[in-house]
Design goal:
Mean pLDDT: 85
Helix content: 40-55%
Structural class: alpha/beta
Distance between the termini: 40 Å
Number of strands: 5
Strand order of the largest sheet: 3-2-1-4-5
Radius of gyration: 15 Å
Low-confidence stretches: none
């Protein structure tokens, strides 16, 4: 199976693991000369919360999700790191239910591999809060590489 396009799905919590996500994606994409699409899906509530901090005057109905994603950490740092390594990159932003939007983005860019990060959670946390990463893994139209923080559960 050829890998031409890798979708790296990131969110605001991925700032703490951006370096590791970049390394993971480079291991996959660089040797195969694959394009990496850095995707950031966010909810309307998240957009409203930080739109002023990013200098956007538009209300959520008028927003270009890709323009917001390009200015949202850790997207620009990841693009810089991957580009410096010689990997072709593209940024895509989406607005809506995060899990659903990431899966739809993977379909839209015809991703051959999806990379997503997450943190370790107890079964009770997953049952009560759900897991966006789990939803993505189960519904993705391509193989998923999951980078999990290696911190110890308390």
């Amino acid at each position: 199976m050829a890998i031409d396009t890798v979708l790296l799905a990131v969110g605001p919590m991925d700032t703490v693991r951006a370096e590791e996500l970049a390394e993971t994606v480079l291991e996959i994409a660089a040797p195969l000369e694959a394009t990496v699409v850095i995707g950031h899906a966010f909810t309307e509530a998240e957009y409203e919360e930080f739109r002023e901090n990013l200098g956007f005057e538009e209300r959520v109905e008028d927003v270009d999700p890709t323009a917001v994603a390009a200015r949202r950490p850790p997207v620009s740092d990841l693009e810089e790191r991957l580009s410096a390594a010689g990997v072709e990159t593209e940024i895509r932003g989406t607005l809506g239910d995060v899990g659903t939007e990431v899966v739809e983005l993977a379909r839209a860019v015809d991703a051959d591999r999806l990379v997503v990060g997450g943190r370790r959670r107890s079964p009770a946390e997953k049952a009560v809060l759900g897991s966006v990463s789990q939803e993505i893994i189960l519904d993705a139209p391509c193989p998923v590489t999951y980078y999990r923080d290696l911190d110890v559960m308390e």
